[in-house]
Amino acid sequence: MILAARQKLRLRFRDLAALSSFVAVAITGVMPIWTTVIFSVAFLLSFFGKRPLSGQRVWSVILLLGIAAVLFFLAFRGGLDLIIAAVSFASLVTAHRLLAEPDAATAHQVLLSSLLLVSGAAALSGEIWYAVCLFFFGVFACLSLGLMAVEGPVERDEPMPMRPVFRQISFGVFLALVGGIAFFFLFPRLSWNVAARRATPGLLGGTTGLSDRVSLAGGGSLKTSARVVLRVALEPDPRIESLDFYWPGRRFSLFDGKEWKGNGEAQRVEYAVTTTTQIARKQLTQRFELLPAYDARTMVALETVISFRNAVGLSAAGSRNIGIQRVTDEEVRLAEDATAYSYTAASAEIPLLANEEERALNLELPNTLDPRVAQLASQIVGTETDALKKAQRLERWLKENLSYSLDLGEQPIDPLAEFLFVSKQGHCEHFATALAVLMRSQQIPSRVVGGFFGGQRVSEKYAIRAGDAHAWVEAHLDGQWIRFDATPESFRSGTPGQLMAALVSLWEAIEDRWRRNVVDFSIVDQADFVKSLIRPPKNGVPDEQSSARTSFDVTPRKIIYALVLVGLGWWLRKRLKKKIKKHPATLFHDAVISKLQQHQMTFAHTGIEEISNELNQRQLPSAPIVSRATRRYLENRFSNIPMNQEESAALLKSLDDALQTKSMPQ
Amino acid sequence: MSSFTDRFLKNARAPRHLSITRVGKIFLVVTLGIGLGALNTGNNLLYLVLGFLLSVIVLSGVLSERVLRDLSVRRLLPSTARAGETFRLRYEIRKQNGTAFALKISEHKSTLNGFGWVPHFDSKEEFVASSNMSTDVRGPLEMKFIEVSTFFPFGLFEKSRIFDVSDMMLIWPKRGFSCEAPTESSAQHAGVNGMARFRDGAGDLAGLRPLRVGEDARRVHWKKSASAQTLLRTERERDDRKQFRLALDESNPLNLERSCEESATLCESLIEQGHEVGFSTSTAVMQPAAGAAALKKILDMLAWAGFSK
Predict the structure, then answer these.
(1) pTM for this model (two decimals)
(2) What is the C-alpha separation between A220 and A100, in angstroms, rounded?
(3) Higher pLDDT pick, B178 / A303
(4) In this complex, is the C-beta atom of B119 within 8 Å of any C-beta atom belonging to chain A?
(5) Cβ contact B120–A165 (<8 Å)
């Protein structure tokens, strides 16, 4: 590969390293749009070999300083987070350098500012995408630096085979990445605390979110979304693959014929909210992580919730404790806005007590209600007088006579009548609304509940997807709220495509490992890891403490042993395989020197040229032969004039004869 | 005593020398900053970046060691070298195992400036690296150590290895300005083949050229000069030459370098003109002779002037 092609390749690697570092911050979604636009334009120009700032150093630096001043002003005024301002500036410096002269110094500057960008991204993000970007940054930066190192201080327009260079640098990059992981696990942590978790909105934005109303006009496209919106760890862990749990979030009592609304009154903000005074012996603790895709402040928890506490809001600026606010019986919500949240809830198998004052409210029907609805309810319940049995009949009838569909076409004027009497197909909100209205028409107080249904196990936690969003009904019977769900069982949780669901689950599993082993890796984990390496369990039986982490303890040791064995085998193979192949001229050179040494001839120099000169000065009989041999050696070695074996043998024989002559007694 | 000192210095010398390049220094500062940030905040992703950077530092040491290991090197000396001018010094380098990358070969503890560069070579072959060297110092140049260094793999550090390879090379005096041309009285006409009757040259007429100031008027070709309206002199196959006997002025040791340069320039000029030059120093005498061999001998004598063999 010639110099121009090598330079182009090196610059491409440099540009890709810069791009990887920028993507690491861009995917957090917190960068100002104009920064992203400037960097993208700079990257594209540089990648296609256009560098307009080349030779415009002064003006471009003044412009850059101006932008720095603006960023500083924004950060000073509180309009921009300081870290985001710093990262924005680093990305602009990188863009500036990308468009400057493509020399070695500029390449170093690009890579160093990209390294600062990567470090800034580490302070903003905890996502696994960061690891992917870091990987690509490492690979491209090392390749670029490696090519620069091999090119040397003086660039020469000579062809250079790239394969051995790439092989060696790639090997180096691989070792650097493996070494980086080893350092990560073994570098001593000097603080007990893991850094405050941060969360960024990402590029996709929110997917779901419990709205303050349930509208029948809404489509059901959400049900096919495989995106995970919350994770929850349960204690005690049920250890089953998929849950058939209801996760209520918000309750709606007011129906106007088209949509449901809540009627709650916000109460004061507290840091722990208890929702019942009932005493429960066995509680199920749930530790929730509401992801940026959740995009709402409504807190969900399993029925029946006893308390909410430890609410933390996560944002790009860090994490902070936030308050919890109860909105009477409608919902419990987080008091402040943040990108993501975490909190703890406790639930128990106790009845959800109903307030008698709520009866009247939950019996209200809209004036515009189609009279056929009440007739239908009467027809379904028939002569049944027991409220519970009436409710069950209504639920069963809806399940058996109406079908589930997400393809609903245009919005009708009366969606409920359309669902019950015309199309006879709808999604969970239609089923829930129909059941609640049919119950109310039979004087059974009822309300619609919005939340999630299901949960799939991913490592030690359960993931709930956007498609698991669901609506059902609670009926006020015998002083307590009893759940009814008219939606067919197979359509209650999300219905994403199989492949998409599998991919998202795999991704979620990888992310979970990433979070546990990297983002939340603490000094305690490190101590356990090192202990497992240096002190294996006695008699192969792990002690009680480490038994819970058996898979974590044994695997690294095995991996290390395997790596050592592979390395040893590779080294031995190389040692046995490699033999130096000398140039024929060098073999001839060595033979000449050896012949001279055999005849006890000593010289002040070691090179054949100097030895030849010395022999000529001493006027020895062997001098002409050695001169000729020297000339042929130099011709063969440096001018590629061939010397066959016969010629070299003849010269050596002549030399031998000449040396014998010298040795013979006069 | 000196051999003891040499042995001591040889044993006391570190097997490898490490220096940090400019970008390497910035890299270390950034690494330190990220390390402090990681320790201060406990941010695991910063620890991950720090781990990668530390790994790059360690790997630089390991891979550069692989490059410098199993190397052997020797000089291929040039036939002539002049102070103040570049000359090509070649190094033959071999490696028993593996591949070497980004090697810089130079003289260690020497007045020679310059280096040879080897982008990469494999153990299956031997490599000859050329370097453009220069020095300002005349005389016998002792070269004891060859320094082989590498920037591989990332150009952050320069690791060097010193080889004990002793050689000696004569550096001829600088090409300088000769203030005084030798007087006519110091010259003796030798004639062609030393015969006085061929003082104006011998052989066929080779050409005509304008007569210069101070040249013998007997060489004028009058007929051609008349037709050309300017004085033209003849040049023959074997032109006439003079014998000069010059001596190096060693009276003032402080002016020795200048004397050597002047003598070298003068001798070179005279021999180029085809004259015979004899030369003497305080330690050696050379009878008048012409040609490149004579010039080489004179320059060798000048290189040794002030030094003992």
Answers:
(1) 0.68
(2) 52
(3) A303
(4) yes
(5) yes
